[in-house]
Write a structure and sequence with these properties.
12 strands; single chain; binds pyridoxal-5'-phosphate; alpha/beta; Aspartate Aminotransferase, domain 2; Aspartate Aminotransferase, domain 1; 3-stranded antiparallel beta sheet
Length: 382
């Protein structure tokens, strides 16, 4: 049986062009970018060129891009780095209850270091209200971190409006744009953000490489020490094949974000039409402010682990929430924030996320298999 991979919000397959660039880099770009001989200079040039492309994809200056090991590290650097550097101005941080664990756990760590964190609630649409940010702000607030697109339900957050709200406030504004990258044209000036996280493996690039945009005027404390790389903000010999692969992945979507968005929207419309033929389901998250890449569906009355296991046997690869918690089968903190812990929708939600190679036919086939599985499990339960 052929398999249907519908978990692109967890990670995407490497694009063949990326893979080709990386294999060349693995053998040819072995020089250390810090070495001054020709081999080192060749590698330095490759890093600089990649930095220019990533900067362009965010409407940023090259100097403001810090390569990291991925989204998790970029989020940690943004949050912990800002908090430690700005603590003389206050010790209050605002984030939302639906952030990725990279943000939530960084905030939890800071709480153990004497910072106070406000975790903004969301309503059933899964969107952070701009008023809640306004109400939570104090003179002590030094950082606001709100994600651009939620990775579990796909809801789009009002980043530009929050940027506008914070324009005259001391708080540094960070957004985790991991799930928006590649499908939303990003411009750090329009968004008025100071820090922004992206990662390569969600856009058909390699795992283990990402970047943090940092506005030049904003100071952060590094998390690592031991070298001059990345202007001392993230020392360590650069992950050259990763950086080269990241650049190639970005070049493939640069300027094409809206076309990709339209492509995914078309697939999602077909998917939703088909999935609506299954009885007793809900599609979770705001109807309009939602990513075309993610569809979160609750199959009421079913048990997530049983559904996931059976879908896996049927060759359908999906997730019950964020990849980090999927293995542990704890119910999603995002759905808990939206509906409450015991709500049937929280207990039976599956995330389908779409990818570049998907077709309309794949949408119809995946729902056909899901429908059979759900109906079989429901019959067995009765
Ligand atoms: C919204 C969001 N932020 C951060 C991350 C972490 O990125 P990485 O896997 O590159 O560490 C992910 C990945 O699941 C994500 O979806």
């Amino acid at each position: 049986m052929d398999t249907l991979y519908f978990d692109h919000a967890a990670t995407t397959p490497l694009h063949p062009d990326v893979s080709q660039m990386m294999s060349t880099a693995l053998t040819e770009n072995f020089g250390n970018p810090s070495s001054i001989h020709q081999s080192g200079r060749q590698s330095r040039k490759a890093v600089d060129e990649a930095r220019t492309v990533i900067a362009k994809s965010l409407g940023a200056n090259d100097k403001d891009i810090i390569f990291t090991s991925g989204g998790t590290e970029a989020d940690n650097l943004a949050i912990i780095g800002t908090a430690l550097k700005h603590q003389d101005k206050g010790k209050h941080i605002i984030t939302s209850s639906i952030e990725h664990h990279a943000v939530l756990d960084s905030c939890h760590y800071l709480e153990t270091r004497g910072f106070t964190v406000t975790y903004l609630p969301v309503d059933e649409t899964g969107v952070v209200g701009i008023d809640t940010v306004k109400m939570a702000l104090t003179d002590e607030t030094i950082l606001v971190s709100i994600m651009m697109i939620n990775n579990e339900v796909g809801t789009i957050q009002p980043i530009q409006a929050i940027g506008e709200l914070l324009k005259d406030h001391q708080a540094v504004f960070h957004t985790d744009a991991v799930q928006a990258y590649g499908i939303v044209p990003l411009d750090v000036e329009d968004l008025q953000v100071d820090l922004l996280t992206v990662t390569a493996h969600k856009v058909n690039g390699p795992k283990g490489i990402g970047a943090l945009y940092k506005r030049q005027a904003v100071k952060i404390q590094p998390l690592f020490y031991g070298g001059d790389q990345e202007r001392k903000r993230r020392p360590g010999t650069e992950n050259l094949p990763g950086i080269i692969g990241f650049k190639q992945a970005v070049e493939l979507f640069l300027g094409e974000e809206l076309n990709r968005q339209a492509h995914f929207q078309q697939l999602k419309t077909t998917f939703e039409k088909e999935v609506n033929t299954i009885a007793n389901i809900t599609i979770n998250g705001d109807e309009d402010k939602v990513s075309p890449l993610i569809c979160n569906v609750s199959f009421l009355g079913t048990r997530i682990e049983q559904v996931l296991m059976n879908l896996d046997l049927d060759g359908v690869f999906v997730s019950s929430g964020s990849a980090c918690t999927a293995g542990s089968m704890t119910s999603s903190h995002v759905l808990k924030a939206m509906y409450g812990e015991k709500d049937e929708r929280t207990l039976s939600a599956i995330r389908f996320s779409f990818g570049l190679h998907h077709t309309e036919k794949a949408m119809i086939e995946v729902v056909k298999r899901v429908k059979q599985t759900i109906e079989r499990l429901r019959t067995l339960a009765n």
